[in-house]
Amino acid sequence: MGLRLLLRQQADGGVHGRRQREGGASGEVLNARPMSAQAVLRGAALAMVAWVGLACAALAQAPVAAPLAFPALTGRVVDDAGLLPAEDRATLAASLTRLEAQTTDQLVVVTVKSLQGATIEDYGYQLGRQWQIGQKDEDSGVLLIVAAAERKVRIEVGYGLEGTLTDAATKLIIENTILPAFRTGDFALGIRNGTGQIAQLLRGD
Q: How do residues 176-202 score in pLDDT, each as one tens digit?
């Protein structure tokens, strides 16, 4: 009996020892349990919500650019900056009317006081969309844009005329004809001569 009792006590002690160790003895550092998939997803969702909140707050504080204000399309010459004498406006308008009758292409001269903080490229693109000059199905409109405050010039060409008024051709007109006259203070001369050269290319002269 004594031996059996001793063996039973040793067996019981062994089982209790394993259970105690599984629970972790006092003073031991337990290994952290791996996070469940649900906990990981919950943490990622909270992080995403926080990021979206910060992004929305930043957008709310960012200044909103005011829309550009364009002059009204009142004719083939829109001298909003007042750079052209009345006689030049009338002469240009008559020549542009004849050009459209000959080619169906529409060329409009526009001077503006300011680009309102935009680049002249963006201003020209937006103005072209606003006015929608040229034949509807052919996109055959051209804008000669002069910005007085910024002293900038651009020739905005519709898609239908890009083969005739190439970037190289319009650059030469601006740099060799329009800007030299502007540098002497003669805006009317630069606009007249630049318009004449654009018209020559449109007529195929």
A: 999 999 999 999 999 999 999 999 999
Distance CA 195, CA 38 (A): 70
The pTM (predicted TM-score) of the whole model is: 0.69
Task: Give me the residues paired with residue 111 across strands.
Answer: 79, 146
Per-position b or e across 97-134, b if 16+ CB within 10 A of its CB? eebbeebebbbbbbbbeebbebebeebbeebbeebebb
Distance CA 196, CA 205 (A): 11
H-state helical runs in the chain: 2-23, 37-61, 86-103, 120-131, 167-173, 179-183, 187-203
Structure tokens belonging to residue 95: 């020549």
